Amino acid sequence: AGFVHRVAWDATIVPIRAFHNDGSGSMADVIAGIYYAVDVAKVNVLSMSFSAPTDSPELKKAINYAQQQGVIIVAAVSNSNSSAKVYPAAEDKVLGIAATDYNDFKASFSDYGSDVAFAAPGYYMTSTAPRDTNQKDHWGMASGTSFSTPCVAGNVVLLAEVCDHHRCLGLAVILRKDRTESVDRLLQARRVDRRCAVVHGL
Fold first, then answer.
1. Of the candidates 22, 81, 73, which has an alpha carbon nearest to the alpha carbon of residue 49?
2. Measured between alpha carbons, how far is 161 from 186 in angstroms, rounded to an integer?
3. Cα separation values, 146 from 34, 42, 193, Å
4. How far apart are CA 124 and CA 175, in angstroms?
5. Torsions phi, psi of 182, nearest 5?
6. What pTM was estimated for this model as a whole?
7. What whole-number distance in Å separates Cα of residue 145 and Cα of residue 88?
8. Which residues fall within 8 angstroms of residue 59, CB to CB, at 6 or more apart?
9. CA-to-CA distance for 29 and 152, rounded, in angstroms?
10. Residues contacting residue 160 through CB under 8 Å, at least 6 positions apart
């Protein structure tokens, strides 16, 4: 799915807005978005490209609810070059995503640490973007873990396409532990080996 970096071609994207145009938003809106994604949109994978420095009991409750319904949650870590935990990436069983650069090492801005499960490209990524009066196209380049996160989410969806969803929940853990390649020692995260994961899923 996606418009630029397609990973799971047959997936359907369900955009759920929880933030304003300037990037600001409230945790209440995020939580409402999670429940909407699970109960109304019936998603299988939830990709969240944001982070907060502190945990929220209501956020944890919403994430636990989503996981109980079989939803796999993928969340970005921060862009602070820190090992401090951020949420929801640090929640139990959430796949926290860091960013790598052109050389396949930790991007200079990317967080690292115990809440990181995978790393994916996130440095000067071409993507769709809002258009102003001086632009002809809806394209732009930017960096951040927010771009890495949907890359991994797409891989999880791809895996779900080749096996039933309940098996995919277990395979996500296998994929985290075994079906990956090390990226760099500081990051201590892994890169998904998509072909190996899909073959294993079959």
1. 73
2. 33
3. 17, 23, 20
4. 26
5. -65, 145
6. 0.83
7. 13
8. 27, 30, 31, 34, 52, 87, 88, 91
9. 24
10. 44, 45, 72, 168
**Calculated CA dihedral for residues 177, 178, 180, 182, nearest 10 degrees:** 70
Q: Which residue has the tokens 């929880």?
A: 18
How confident is the model over 79-126, as pLDDT tens digits? 999 999 999 999 998 999 999 888 888 899 999 988 898 888 899 888
Hey, what amino acid is at 16? I
Q: Which amino acid, residue 125?
A: M
Residue with the two structure tokens 């995020």: 30
Angstrom CA distances, 120 to 7, 37, 153, 166, stand at 12, 24, 10, 25
Q: Which of the residue ranges 16-30, 118-132, 162-176, 188-202 has the most confident prediction, judged by mean pLDDT?
A: 16-30
